[in-house]
């Protein structure tokens, strides 16, 4: 089992897409172990996006994610990091495949609705940034025996 860090950016929240997007992860068979709506402090946004510091889009990205609440999730499942990235799709909505979240709901590269950790290392780092120790739920889903083979 892996746990990955996903958040819905201010555009998704403001556009009323929380339910539609969360429903995709739920229907896929993944398990939510953390969920919260929050305004993002600037220092958290800067730590989260540290790898992009100095890039032309960096200042706009920090301003965007701190401008209005985001909906943060910790999502658990077998191979959850890669599975969630596949559900999310390519960074730019115009290039993202139909059937993916970005491919179905957006047209932008910057306002692309959702973040998902890109590796297990990133997921561990990001989960520690966004959730406190002990904040994630413990859940035993008996149905998982029919979700995975
Ligand atoms: P992803 O979110 O698909 O992992 P990334 O890590 O390369 O993409 O970039 C982080 C975010 O930065 C991305 O979701 C939106 C923004 N971004 C990336 N490239 C951009 C660009 N060329 N123009 C505007 N925003 C960009
Ligand atoms: Mg990324």
TrEMBL record:
Swiss-Prot/TrEMBL GO biological process terms: CTP biosynthetic process; GTP biosynthetic process; UTP biosynthetic process
Binding residues for ATP: 9, 57, 85, 91, 102, 112
Localized where? Cytoplasm
Tell me the ranges covered by the Nucleoside diphosphate kinase-like domain, including all copies.
Answer: 1-138
The EC number(s) attached to this protein equal 2.7.4.6
Q: Which InterPro entries match?
A: NDK-like_dom, NDK-like_dom_sf, Nucleoside_diP_kinase, Nucleoside_diP_kinase_AS
Q: Which domain of life is it from?
A: Bacteria
Q: Which cofactor does it need?
A: Mg(2+)
Broad class of where this protein is predominantly found: cytoplasm
User: Which top EC class is given?
Assistant: transferase
Q: Which reaction does it catalyse?
A: a ribonucleoside 5'-diphosphate + ATP = a ribonucleoside 5'-triphosphate + ADP; dZDP + ATP = dZTP + ADP; a 2'-deoxyribonucleoside 5'-diphosphate + ATP = a 2'-deoxyribonucleoside 5'-triphosphate + ADP
Protein keywords: ATP-binding, Cytoplasm, Kinase, Magnesium, Metal-binding, Nucleotide metabolism, Nucleotide-binding, Phosphoprotein, Transferase
Task: Please list every transmembrane segment annotated in the UniProt record, as residue ranges.
Answer: none
Q: Which NCBIfam families has this protein been placed in? A: PRK00668.1
The record ties this protein, via HAMAP family, to: NDP_kinase (MF_00451)
Please give the subunit comment from the record.
Homotetramer.
The free-text function statement in the UniProt record for this protein reads:
(Microbial infection) Catalyzes the phosphorylation of dZDP to dZTP, when the bacterium is infected by a phage that produces the substrate for the synthesis of dZTP (2- amino-2'-deoxyadenosine 5'-triphosphate), which is then used by the phage as a DNA polymerase substrate.
Could you say which protein family the record assigns here?
Belongs to the NDK family.
Name it.
Answer: Nucleoside diphosphate kinase
Q: Tell me what organism the protein belongs to.
A: Algisphaera agarilytica
Q: Which gene encodes it?
A: ndk
